[in-house]
Specification:
Blueprint lengths: L13 H20 L7 H22 L2 H4 L1 H6 L6 H28 L10 H25 L3 H14 L12 H7 L3 H15 L11 H25 L3 H4 L1
Helix pairs in contact: 1-2, 2-5, 2-6, 2-7, 2-9, 5-6, 6-9, 6-10, 9-10
């Protein structure tokens, strides 16, 4: 965390400023230019955007973390998964602080977000395993395929627009909604939005079905186990490749 903001005048506050600026840009575009007609669009957006930023920042920064720490990897023996997981934990810390700032804003705006707050630890745990699995996977693969660290940003952008974050899922044609539900971030961001935004607009509440919940948990479990397995399989070859 200290390394990330070293030499920066605003330091850690950039972790709050970045999502705020992103929210303002999207709010202007979709509220005043495209006119989606969503009430309190800024809250609608930020309620899902913070959880997405946790994933995207962890994976994009984590992709290069083994290569960037080549001196450490070559000199000292330690469980190498500590490096990508430290990236995940640092971004999780940011995520929690950003949510704390959001809580203050929601209280001021009259959102009773605490009604569904009991879901918060569950969602954080589920998303943590998803993010950890992806970060372990890309950090290991990037040691052998260095172009992956550049490609990953494009893939994350495509995934972002394929997840109902800047738009409500009911804007998607019904035949495609079923496909979106296989995207674990659809369920995760929708649940965060239920807690922070839809609690004020209960007509918009969309809870996942049992089938969707099971699919999401299964996908997260597979991604985490696959990421960990591939990381441990490739770990012995890290030193010779970097």
């Amino acid at each position: 965390m200290k390394v990330k903001y070293r030499g920066s005048f605003l330091g850690f506050f950039w972790s709050l400023i970045n999502p705020l600026l992103t929210m303002l840009v999207y709010t202007f575009v979709f509220s005043f230019v495209m006119r989606l007609g969503i009430k309190d669009y800024a809250v609608f957006l930020i309620s899902a955007l913070l959880s997405w930023n946790f994933l995207s920042n962890s994976v994009s920064y984590g992709a290069n973390c083994i290569v960037a720490n080549s001196n450490l990897v070559n000199k000292i023996y330690f469980p190498r998964e500590i490096i990508p997981l430290s990236v995940v934990f640092a971004n999780l810390f940011n995520f929690i602080l950003e949510m704390a700032a959001l809580f203050i804003v929601l209280i001021f705006l009259g959102y009773n977000f605490y009604v569904y707050l009991y879901w918060l630890p569950v969602l954080i745990i589920v998303e943590f395993f998803l993010v950890a699995g992806l970060t372990l996977l890309v950090s290991a693969l990037n040691v052998f395929f260095r172009d992956l660290s550049h490609l990953i940003n494009i893939l994350i952008m495509l995934w972002f627009f394929g997840t109902p974050i800047i738009y409500p899922i009911n804007m998607v044609p019904e035949r495609f909604q079923a496909i979106l539900r296989y995207n674990p971030m659809t369920t995760i961001t929708s649940m965060f939005r239920n807690m922070f935004y839809n609690v004020k607009y209960p007509e918009n509440l969309m809870w996942p079905t049992w089938k969707t919940a099971v699919i999401t948990l299964a996908v997260v479990a597979v991604i985490f186990m696959l990421g960990y397995f591939i990381f441990k399989k490739l770990e012995p070859r890290f030193a010779e490749e970097i």
